[in-house]
Amino acid sequence: MLRPVAFLIGGLLIGTVAGKVLTSSAHQAGSAAVAPPARVERSCAHTSGNTAIIVVHGQSNAGNWGSARHTAREAVDNFDPLTGKCFAAADPLLGADGIGGSFATRLGDILIQAGRYDRVIVVPLAIGSASLSVLNNERADWITNAISKLKAAGLTPTHFLFQQGETDARSTISAEQYASLLHQLVKRFRAAGFDAPFYLSRSTKCGVAEPKNTAAVRAGQLSAVDNALNIRQGPDTDTIGNDGRNASDACHMNEIGTLANAALWAAFIK
């Protein structure tokens, strides 16, 4: 059954979807069978003052784990932290793991179509299944490398988007520990002179049953908001229900959920 869905932000139609909801297994098999898109290199130099440079970090739902790939229709570029080069944005985005779609590609289109920016450069860093501790310790080198490559390219982020929490919602981390680790992670960017707003989503949903530690993680995400570190509250992605997620895992986003995720983030970006 096809289900048409439309999203509005401030009265502006930002997108529609009409298609089958793929299962996670179908997504993985289908994406693996499809070759990655040809990469079109673009200059990283931004001549317009109306350019958004958005770092997207977190775990799988901030990466390339959506069931449908998308190629940007607007002036949306993908900064690849590995090579330090920019490419026309096409899923799967370079820099994050996963072989499917990313909400960030759609987000770039939304922001430009809404007239907020002339160009959007997305910097993906997300790592599937990573706890906040892993992102801040074993995988902290991803942040260090991104900082180095961004500086070499002359790019200073205008926004940080952080969507993570599903793995920690299955752990025993406390709200206080979560907030402390998040502050440590943000300070890595602040120490590099990157002072742009850091938006933190409230994200824990992954599976039909509510994870055992949901309340603590959501409390930690709320308490981590901090004026001194310019950490701001982002969207509550747990509001994306099972209709927006793959039927097999009730976790990763289908096409409807990926667009909804982008729309939720767009509402917070100024």
From TrEMBL:
<protein>
    <recommendedName>
        <fullName>Sialate O-acetylesterase domain-containing protein</fullName>
    </recommendedName>
</protein>
<dbReference type="Pfam" id="PF03629">
    <property type="entry name" value="SASA"/>
</dbReference>
<keyword id="KW-0378">Hydrolase</keyword>
<dbReference type="InterPro" id="IPR005181">
    <property type="entry name" value="SASA"/>
</dbReference>
<dbReference type="GO" id="GO:0016788">
    <property type="term" value="F:hydrolase activity, acting on ester bonds"/>
</dbReference>
<dbReference type="InterPro" id="IPR036514">
    <property type="entry name" value="SGNH_hydro_sf"/>
</dbReference>
<feature type="domain" description="Sialate O-acetylesterase">
    <location>
        <begin position="98"/>
        <end position="192"/>
    </location>
</feature>
